[in-house]
## 1
Amino acid sequence: MNRSDFPIFDYQPDLVYLDSANTTLKPRAVIDAVRNYYENYSANIGRATYDLAERATLEFNSVRQKVADFVGADLREVIFTHSATYGINQVAFGLRDFLRVGDVILLTEYEHNSNIIAWQKVAAETGARVVFLDEKPDLENVKIFAFSHVSNITGEVFDYDEITAKVHENGGLVLADITQSIGRTKTNLKNYDFAVFSSHKIYGPSGVGVLFAHREVQEKINPLIFGSQTFKKISRENVILADNFSRFEAGTPNIEGVIGLGAAIDFLNKISMNKISEHDIELTKYMTKQLEKNGLMQFLIGAPTTGIFSLNHPKIHPHDFAMLLNQQKIAVRAGRSCSDILMQKLGLDRGVVRASFGIYTTKTDVDKFIAGYKNAIERLAD
Ligand SMILES: Cc1ncc(COP(=O)(O)O)c(C=O)c1O
């Protein structure tokens, strides 16, 4: 599907790119949008009034609406950040005043390290405790529940509707890490208070992320950094911060990155998220069938329903697999994939081989991976 939209395949026609959960390849539309900004209206936003600056400001601002529409949010709930990681840190450290000694920060063991470390640090500062879901905690003391909607290791989808409702009942807040779900399935922010993702995982440039924060909870978080664009009024003695998303967007943003993200969303909308999701599901089923057919299911971790597959062979190091696959131009992730707590739980200190799909992935890519994986076992086992 749409392989010709990705110029990298013109230069590397044999590339089998199975690392889209790490970062996605970029379509021509995104590359062109970034280049167009540099070549035709390269200017700072929100400050100057000449034509170039006004065009840059208009283009930048239009992306906020595109992002909001993409997930059914309100424009005022969209905060541009540098990454999903930054968004999580903004919420975690922004809630310092909300957390007290003994409060529980509930995480799941499936979290990316980014959705663990910031919470551990903020817990250490405030006296709150980080507790993982598999410890089966009492939900009454949960002040924050932060979870990934799709696991970056097992490709499983987690909604946690009941826990979300319970946490809300007790006055807690919920953050959904939608980094792995937003480019794969139609995302519904439902009643989550916060959600985060990175542009580079949905075919946009890196260095840009989005934090959704519902209007009522935006007031609960303090900005991480301060500077230009963040205030309503300033005097020698005092500053009054803006009472909207501007409060969290200090300094000149990654203008070209945000414009590129807008182009990525246009690109995805043109294909339609329904079609993208169908493609992902079809390939996921195909991969599962091929793993079964080739006797490889025993190595699979979890039960993926989206295009992220992690495999563990008891005898062969993931890096050895990756090296042999790389010789056939098959790009996969090998190691703990930033999920150390899950790897510890599974006893997989060396990590896994992870193959993950994007909208350009084909059944032929899957076949080549399966053949390459089997061939590596033949060469490396014993
Ligand atoms: C589920 C999940 N959350 C967060 C992140 C962090 O994203 P970034 O490194 O773009 O901040 C990743 C990246 O792999 C991820 O898969």
## 2
Amino acid sequence: MKKTLLLLVPASLTMLLASCGGQQPSSQSTAFSEKSEATSTPTSKSEETSQPSVTSESEETSMSTFISSESEESTVTSSDTQPDPDPLYNGVDHDFRLEAEAGVLDGTRAKRSDNPAASGGLMAADINDCGQGLEWIHYAPVAGIHELNVAYWTGAANSKHGVYLNGTKVGDAVYAEANGWADGVTGPAIVTVSVDLVKGYNKISLVKDGGASDNPEYGGWAQIDYVDIVGANATYDVESLDFTVSEIVLEAERGNFHTGGLPFQCDTMGENYAVGEINEAGHGVDIYFKVPVEGHYGVKITYAQGGSGNVADVTMNGEVGEYELPAYEGQAYNVPNTSEVVVSAQCFNSSLNFVSVTRSPNSAGWFIIDSITLVPLTE
Ligand SMILES: [Ca+2]
Ligand SMILES: [Ca+2]
């Protein structure tokens, strides 16, 4: 990684925005802990412990699940054309399954874990800090209210995840039953929530976003196996489906953040969290993802900053750029702005893509990363 260069942040910008995270029961293994420093950008404090898990690999192929494991290799020939008709889209609004392991953008904190009793043999675990969670892009052939059956394990009854649809929180998935941590034998429990899907691509997220007053506090903990989107059995015209991608938003807080702290809660940020504490060169976030349609994509950064001269190193699939984040009106830690395209690269559906945004050694100071947006480009 990059050589570390310590750059201090004005103390006036240091503030505590939220306390978020939580501690797993003592029987669970401990993973990771970081503390914020006096010179840091706004962040949350949290304690952290992890759920029992073993990281593993998985593959995903559905149009409904575009994010998959970090261990695959890019061997697919790319194209900018629409994919062949997906047999999943056969004219009937049937059930779709989003495997939790396919919604993990981060192989380091939230993990894919082996579980013989899980669908696909894998689950997502170690969703321990606020802002962490899972996100998927699901192509809905029919708009309207659909039930989501979320399959989970938890040792702490009434743990919960916020359910976000297309960037807006629409409810909570409450894991009411303490069915125990996954033992590889016992199948998951199910909780049902409803969302109002749009026809076309929907971004669905499960996010640990509880508060201190929750019981268990900060939303507790859960291991997730899958989310079934229950079809309405309505029929539709397959020819009417348009799989053209307009943009894909990857929340920074769902990625592998390597910073001086944890994501912080802020209601002006996408899905209410952003990654701060980018206090040194090399601090930032990286994300593993798939795109629903292969092609050439550009990277835009949604960021916030308090001053100018901040420089980000941006990498996607081997394409590298260094980019000074533009000043903007009203800039402040809680006022995000979106950059132009800073790097572009070919992205794949059937193998993993990698994008990274980190603080350059040439940066004058800190910045905050809210999300990374991918936009399809014509070459
Ligand atoms: Ca699964
Ligand atoms: Ca965000």
## 3
Amino acid sequence: MTPQFDNDSRKSNHSLRLAIAFAVATGLGTGILTARQVRAATDKPAVITIDNFTFGPANLTVPAGTTVTWTNHDDIPHSIVATDKAFRSAALDTNDSYTFTFKTAGTFAYFCGLHPHMTGKVIVTP
Ligand SMILES: [Cu+2]
């Protein structure tokens, strides 16, 4: 007959192993998936491309909680500055990205801090 002590010990060891396996699996998954793959998996691409002095799309509509990624494909730096100062990127060199998570609904106008005539809007729905 197995003493109760051994049963308890085995059970908690098993739980611990599961917890470690889970942590390793989720950690690995996060590390392996690129941002592009994550967006594809959620089927809600929230990407704004900067090209030829233009934000594309200029108006992007997303549900609240969405993380929007701007990527500069121009060969000169650009930045993203919210008109209401809610967010502001550093100057993005070619192929650099900036992300911001829109937690609340509303219309968020922004412009390029280096070329203020470049403007765009993120419309966040509840
Ligand atoms: Cu610019």
